[in-house]
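Hi P.,

Sorry for the delay on this. The queue was packed all week, but I finally got your sequence through. Input first:
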Amino acid sequence: MKNFIKNKKLIITFISCLVVVILAFIGVTAMKMIAKDSSIGSEAAKKFALLDAGVQEKNIEDIDVQFDYKDSAYVYNVDFETQKKEYHYYVKASNGIILEKKIIKKKKHKKKKDKKESKKKKTNKSKKSKKKKGKSKSSSKSEKKIKETTKKVKSKKNKGSDNVDEVIGLDQAKSIAISSSGESPGDVIFTIARLNGDEYDLQFYNGNKEYNYSIDAFSGSVISGYSNTLDERDSND
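Then the structure:
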């Protein structure tokens, strides 16, 4: 009789633990489904990652988008690759902000002839650039940086979106920064928007929130980006 009571208690305890585990699993699954339903969606996450990388969808060889949970937040894990690089992105599921990214260059195996030709091209380019440097010095430091950037662009030829060879333009740089911040274009006010060498320096506000971004002028990728929440005193000033 005593053994029967003990076994009965063990069975009840086991069933109780099993019910708790099942309920916890159901709760976690339900929360994940709710977060996914209210998220930006896998297509939007993919577009945010491609926009940040400066890669067009037609140049992608393989892409994989997974809904995941990382560092106390639901994210989209976007992995894709082109002929020359591999890209790994973590995009915040709620607003599309790039939380983490990793870009890896693929190894190339060139023949000796190709190496010699590339060396010749580099020496020719360096000779041309030295001749150009001896010209006008009347402009200021900032103007010189802009001129050098445009010369660099004009001397190149388009080789596809993976090697971006043209300045993307201020409007596109603004659009990339706004998309990365998760704000709407009509809600923000820009206070700084300028080309600084190979980068666009951008600062904009939405209410009491300040955003600062540096965008690569050629690829359109986000070099740095952060936001600050201002208190009422700062916003009034």
